[in-house]
Amino acid sequence: MLDVPLRERNTLLLKAGFAPEYPASELDAPSLAAVRGALETILRQQEPFPALVMDRSWDILHTNAAARGFFALLQDGQARTVPGPANVLRRMFHPDGVRRHVANWPEVAEALVRRVRREAVGGLTDERAHRILDEVLDYPGVPAALRSLDAARPTLPIVPIRYVHGDRRFGFFSTVTTLGTPQDVTLQELRIECFFPMDDETRQQARLLRARR
Description:
By secondary structure, the protein is an alpha+beta fold. The chain has one domain (6-10, 25-212): 2-Layer Sandwich (Beta-Lactamase). The protein is 38% helix and 14% strand. Strands 2-1-5-4-3 form a five-stranded antiparallel beta sheet, with helices on both faces. Strand 1 and strand 2 (60-63) form a beta hairpin. The longest helix is centred in the middle third of the chain and has 14 residues, at 105-118. It comes from Actinacidiphila bryophytorum. InterPro entries: MLTR_LBD.
């Protein structure tokens, strides 16, 4: 049972006729105030570089000011129609998302598809994430070959994301952090993704964006 995610443990207990053992609290619940404070600290300390908190379905729950400012820049300050709640996969694949600003989009898209297919938060895949993946692979302009990728094939240790906006260039790589020893389903499924600059140009551009906020 030690390697079974809390959500699945609850499911197994229910099937065996027992009550669920682990709560699945809303992130804004009073009992999680300390955790929210910790998340806010992590996001704030990542400034002036983007950071976000997402769940196991890749829905974006929180972002820092740098992420909001950076993605507003890529959207040219306009609200564009990307379906559903804010979701990393939808924003990266949808024609009205950030796809048109990603210089190495084919490489990034392939890495994301492989990651969703093999990634398991706590050890098991998330059905909703796979449904969203099927959805985004049907978006206009998405190569059909992405549907038949071998998720088990070795990939590069780091896949940078290179954004272009006008004459500006940004290159980031990211790290993903989870909370240690959680006893709540919601907390176990949280992921904190922090983006770090690949070069001095990105570092300088990020600082300029912060100065203009």
